[in-house]
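pls design
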């Protein structure tokens, strides 16, 4: 699987956040995360920080957001876990996403997202390839509810 920094897509990144647990890339139409190997992604240690940084970035640009207009692509280039029940904390804080896409080439990633779906209230779109996911989003068909 391709990561953002090693791809031709990197030139389109308008803001990059680097954390000890992974990287977050903001593009014009979407956001891509790449979480490090072995991380157990949870609300308190990771997701809240990501959301706060993205919210602050857009506020500085004069665009207040709760995420409802954002498309989030989880580029699962590494094997890591998500505390699926923490999606409840995301929604409890009145956050939202326009769309949520997962890119994973392996069955483990797909199985993990099935557990996430128990707590994420909207549809999750799956892709085997980052370029396919981004092309899908750029064509404006990402609103798949």
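designed seq:
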């Amino acid at each position: 699987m391709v990561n953002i920094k090693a791809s031709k897509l990197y030139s389109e990144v308008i803001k990059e956040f680097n954390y000890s647990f992974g990287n977050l890339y903001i593009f014009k139409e979407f956001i891509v995360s790449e979480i490090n190997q072995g991380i157990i992604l949870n609300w308190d240690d990771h997701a809240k920080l990501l959301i706060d940084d993205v919210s602050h970035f857009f506020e500085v640009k004069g665009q207040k957001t709760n995420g409802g207009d954002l498309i989030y692509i989880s580029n699962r280039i590494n094997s890591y876990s998500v505390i699926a029940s923490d999606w409840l904390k995301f929604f409890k804080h009145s956050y939202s996403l326009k769309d949520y896409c997962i890119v994973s080439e392996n069955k483990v990633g797909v199985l993990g997202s099935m557990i996430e779906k128990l707590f994420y209230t909207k549809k999750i779109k799956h892709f085997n390839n980052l370029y396919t996911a981004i092309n899908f989003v750029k064509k404006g068909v990402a609103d798949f509810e």
